[in-house]
Amino acid sequence: MGKTLFDKVWDAHVVDTIKNGPQVLYIDKHLIHEVTSPQAFNELKERNIPIARPDKIIATADHNTPTVNQHLPVRDELSRNQLEQLTNNCKENNIELYGLGHKYNGIVHVMAPELGITQPGMTMVCGDSHTSTHGAFGAIAFGIGTSQVAQVFASQCLLLQKPKSLRVTVNGTLKKGVLPKDVILYIIAQLGTNSGTGYFCEYAGNVFEEMSMEGRMTVCNMSIEMGARGGMIAPDETTFEYVKGRKFAPKGELFEKKVAHWKTLKTDANAKFDKEYSFNAEDIEPMVTYGTNPGMGIKITETIPEENDVSFEKSLTYMNFKKGESLVNKKINYVFIGSCTNSRIEDFRVAASYVKGKQKAKNVNAWLVPGSQLVAKQIQEEGLQTIFEKAGFELREPGCSACLAMNDDKIPEGEYCVSTSNRNFEGRQGQGARTILASPLIAAATAVEGRIIDITKNLN
């Protein structure tokens, strides 16, 4: 029996197996930020346990960092304390930190790949559910809880049950205007938010093979939204080219050696998955969500379904939508382009190409939040900043921002926000805020029109 990509990476990292029980898995890279690490550091301190491998940990400040005036002291007391704690903990334990103001600072799942920290065949963890992003490189990457953060600090290992395997295949040609965000929103809408529970998902088929690394990261980022532990895409020439030459990437002869190994990280032809799904690319259209979980999505051309279910009704009441309603022409006052799902340079290029020469609608507050200082620099160098500013968009400083509203970037109660983030739960973007998930293209078009439009008509 052949092995899946997931099997190959997992099996290579098993340190020990408990008889008829879980396995001890070695972790190559541990990413930390200011929100889920302080308790874990305190636990080790109280028990007088040293950090096992500080050289395998990278820290950044991202979740509750302000996105305006980052050079000034942080106003919010809780945020300020968490950031100070992270700084002190990293200093005490000799851990590399890219704090506020550092040239490499950014959202943990944006800055790690762009610095070449993320590499194929690795095991990676972080106290953050969207760690699945790094699976785009053919890495096993998943989010962990605070007690597990402490476990990795103490041992560089985790005690885990091996998840089951799932494969989602998409073949064919995507229509004009369909972005990777639409592909993953479509998959989740078709399969539901629990379809991946207990599984690690591999994405296969020409649609994923033809995606850029940015696109693959968007897809893998949202694997958690269908309940999967993580998502993976087999590394290929696109992956190797992306990693090559980055700050922490292997260099010269070592890089060539690594690539030779990375080329073996693909599912064998005779490997068996526990569950499989396949879709046709031609069936996918630009997507929007209408409810309070990422599975409540429809094509921009469709109407809200007629379902009779208590949670469905509750969701529509919160969103102030009705069954059978179309979202086209719905007035929108807030647009957010950012988050670890869609805040990479490619996302801003897509938005800028639509916005160029146009003006933002007067009723719209349009926030653009790059995923890292390096992305912010590229936006400036490529002239995108000028395009956005001429169009009336507000370009902010890097951070998680209005994705989860842990800083001042909150959507007011009752307002709709077309957002490129990953979650539309009640109150996710601020108390009483109503989130509509979409691609950077739909978000940019909404900001220009002041309402949701059927983008397919503009592109043909």
Label the structural class: alpha/beta
| Overall CATH architecture of the largest domain | 2-Layer Sandwich
> Cα distance, first to last residue?
47 Å
- Fraction of helical residues: 25-40%
Strand arrangement, major sheet: 5-4-3-6-7
Task: Predict the CATH topology of the largest domain.
Answer: Aconitase, domain 3
- What percentage of the residues does DSSP assign to strands (E)? 15-25%
Q: What does the average pLDDT come to?
A: 95
Regarding quaternary structure, what we see is single chain
Q: Counting H and I runs of at least 4 residues, what is the number of helices?
A: 16
How many E-type strands?
A: 19
Question: In CATH, what is the class of the largest domain?
Answer: Alpha Beta
Structure report:
Helix 12 (345-355) packs across helix 14. The protein folds into 2 domains: 5-276, Aconitase, domain 3 (2-Layer Sandwich), CATH 3.30.499.10; 289-452, 2-Layer Sandwich (Aconitase, domain 3). The relative contact order is 0.14. The protein has a 5-stranded parallel beta sheet with strand order 5-4-3-6-7. It has 460 residues and is of the alpha/beta class. The protein has 16 helices and 19 strands. The chain has helices at 5-11, 38-46, 77-93, 108-114, 146-155, 180-191, 206-209, 213-221, 237-243, 252-262, 310-319, 345-355, 373-381, 384-391, 440-449, 455-459, and strands at residues 14-17, 23-26, 29-32, 57-60, 96-98, 123-126, 140-143, 157-160, 164-171, 199-204, 230-232, 275-280, 287-289, 297-299, 334-337, 365-368, 394-395, 416-419, 434-437. It is an enzyme of class 4 (lyase). Its cofactor is [4Fe-4S] cluster. Pathway: Amino-acid biosynthesis; L-leucine biosynthesis; L-leucine from 3-methyl-2-oxobutanoate: step 2/4.
